[in-house]
Amino acid sequence: MPATHEVTNQVPPLVGHDVAAYPPLLESLEREGAGWATEEVHALGRRAGSAEAQEWGRLAEKNVPVLHTHDRYGHRVDEVEFDPAWHQLMAVAVGAGLHAAPWGDDRAGAHVARAAKEFVWTATDPGHICPISMTYAVVPALRANADLAATYEPLLTSTTYDFGLRTPTAKRGLIAGMSMTEKQGGSDVRANTTTATPNADGSHSLVGHKWFTSAPMSDFFLTLAQAPGGLSCFFVPRVLADGSRNAIRLQRLKSKLGNRSNASAEIEYDGALGWLVGEEGRGVPTIIEMVNMTRLDCTIGSAAGMKIATMQAAHHARHRSAFGKHLVDQPLMANVLADLAVEAEAATYAAMRLAGATDRVARGDEQEAAVRRIALAVSKYWVCKRAPSHAAEALECLGGNGYVEDSGMPRLFRESPLMSIWEGSGNVAALDTLRAMARQPESVEAFFDEVELAAGADSRLDDAVGRIRKELTDFADIEYRARHLVERLALVFQGSLLVRHAPAAVADAFCASRLAGDWGVAFGTLPVGVDSATLVDRASVELPA
Ligand SMILES: Cc1cc2nc3c(=O)[nH]c(=O)nc-3n(C[C@H](O)[C@H](O)[C@H](O)COP(=O)(O)OP(=O)(O)OC[C@H]3O[C@@H](n4cnc5c(N)ncnc54)[C@H](O)[C@@H]3O)c2cc1C
Fold first, then answer.
1. Statement: residue 312 has pLDDT above 70
2. What spacing in Å lies between the alpha carbon of 75 and ligand 1's midpoint?
3. Which protein residues touch ligand 1 with a CB less than 6 Å away?
């Protein structure tokens, strides 16, 4: 059979590269005190970019988890079946310590190293990062019950992935989830209706429903329920000490826009046994310790998504020609790519700065705790909020090919809104910033102390800080204005980091567009004079020869 045509002008597959070869990440790793982990991050980056790991990600997303509520005889089993690729991804993630491992690691920078590894491993499949993140996040909350923490923390920090429904203490490693959201509301968890009735032996029996509980195959959940003394936090294992199943019924798995490799379930507690974590009636302050960690991971995950999207777009533009030139050499495409690159750099700098703060807070640094309070709230809002428009624009850089599943771009796009919904949807994240300002005014000054470390270095940043300080003198209609305010706080935080630490080309592009306003509404509207070539280079990866 004669060939009808030769295939030309298609880009080479983007596999076999080192996902960690991303200057903003490596610069941040060093700056935040985990330069010692550079080789480990590269090793995981090479694994993440390998054809094998990329294929695991594809299979885990394509072959979605299946819920088995009953066995063939009609007994409840409440099990979720995953593609083997899911378990491969989980095993590598746990083995590399992306879950709770830093809580058992005394080295300064352990949380930073973990953040960088999570950033690169997200390139395989963001779905499985959900249970990995919750397992990371659960430790500070679980410490509110010293006995439970003493028993379970060593198993949470273990680098062995041990899947299967068995008594948690009989396993070599554990995965944890959180169960807060109910049908009538997720933001306003104080409206939860699940009840917890005390038993004589100190346990509680939980009855109620949860509308979103991701990673339902976790070994235990931290669950909010109404005890006699008010909304409280409970440790609820899937299997009890005697090996019997706790009364947790998986009713249905959600059919989701994206994040499809990860199971998210509706579950019923039918007299499930739980043990109090923290004080009765203090469920929200207890579980907020967990939420604060997953909010960090939402920021890391969104930054990672933007990095992957920019890398894919730059790769395509470097290899695809139109109108006689590579796309990357077409001035308007250079502007789009550079604008996407600035956004991803700013997000990465912010996420890694927050990972550094988390590391120092874990070692007792109170000033960093005050900085983190506002900086995390505004970054969770802004970085996650930028992800969907960033993903859409990056997808368009691939033209029609970007709209086709094989390119991987539709998957990035479907994933992109999630981090802004989960753990405080946009408005809730913005309102959380106002709450922090009102309740912990010292965190506002700590935030500005941090931002003003760059004072005098760039007048565009100085002016933006002056404007936001002025905006903060007026509290009229503050809730109505919350998004506007929080967006500007996030931008000066990013701007300060870039002005102090990033190459001049990055800081200049950011300040000219995001702070001085010489910018349009869509990506690709950077002003003339920006060094777009440097920006695109920093977002590009070299394939092995
Ligand atoms: C894929 C996925 C996985 C999830 N996994 C889990 C999980 O494992 N465990 C868990 O507990 N939950 C989980 N959730 C639930 C998630 O945390 C909630 O969806 C989220 O907190 C929002 O709650 P809601 O859906 O009830 O929306 P609502 O609370 O009804 O909010 C709807 C909208 O109103 C806005 N809003 C709320 N209050 C205000 C206000 N005062 N002023 C202005 N606007 C407001 C919100 O920002 C949001 O945009 C998951 C969700 C998804 C999509």
1. yes
2. 33
3. 177-181, 185-188, 212-214, 256, 259, 264, 418, 421-423, 425-428, 431
Best residue among 255, 421, 483 to mutate for probing ligand 1, ranked by most atoms within 8 Å of CB: 421
Each residue of 106-126: b (16+ CB within 10 Å) or e? eeebbbbbbbbbbbbbbbbbb
Structure confidence at residue 230 (pLDDT):
98
pLDDT tens for 417-471 read 999 999 999 999 999 999 999 999 999 999 999 999 999 999 999 999 999 999 9
Ligand 1, atom 43: closest residue by C-alpha: 427
pLDDT for 2: 65
Residue 496 backbone phi and psi in degrees, to 5: -65, -45
**Roughly what angle, to the nearest 10 degrees, separates helices 331-362 and 532-539?**
60
* 227 confidence band (pLDDT: 50, 70, 90): very high
Give 260-324 as a DSSP string. TTS-EEEEEEEEEEEEEESSTT-HHHHHHHHHHHHHHHHHHHHHHHHHHHHHHHHHHHHH-EETT
The amino acid occupying position 15 is: V
Q: Which residue's entry shows tokens 């912990």?
A: 440
Tokens coding 238: 């899937």
Tell me the torsion sign for CA atoms 419, 472, 346, 110: negative
Length of the chain: 545
Residue nearest to atom 11 of ligand 1 (CA): 180
Count of CB atoms situated within 10 Å of the CB of 503: 16
Cα separation, 199 vs 482, in Å, equals: 44
- CA dihedral (304, 305, 311, 316) in degrees, to 10, reads 170
| Structural element, H or E, at residue 249 | strand 248-253
Q: Whose CA is nearest to atom 22 of ligand 1?
A: 186
Among 16, 50, 54, 188, which residue's Cα sits nearest to residue 544? Answer: 16
For residue 69, which of 270, 243, 204 has the smallest C-alpha distance? Answer: 270
- 115, 362, 419 from 380: Cα distances, Å: 15, 19, 8
